[in-house]
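A protein record pairs a chain with a discrete description of its three-dimensional fold. The following entry can be read in just this way.
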Amino acid sequence: MTVWQTSRPLQANPGLVGPVASDPTVSRLIDSLATNEDTALAALGSAGA
């Protein structure tokens, strides 16, 4: 499953989880996270806490 397959149903149904970022925003986020794996993993780990 791609990020687009995951984000589009959420974008179409904001009542499920609230507002969801647009495809370009999600793409920029993934590009940003991919530039520094250690920082990305730390941020993702703290976001779930």
Q: What stands out?
A: The radius of gyration is 12 Å.
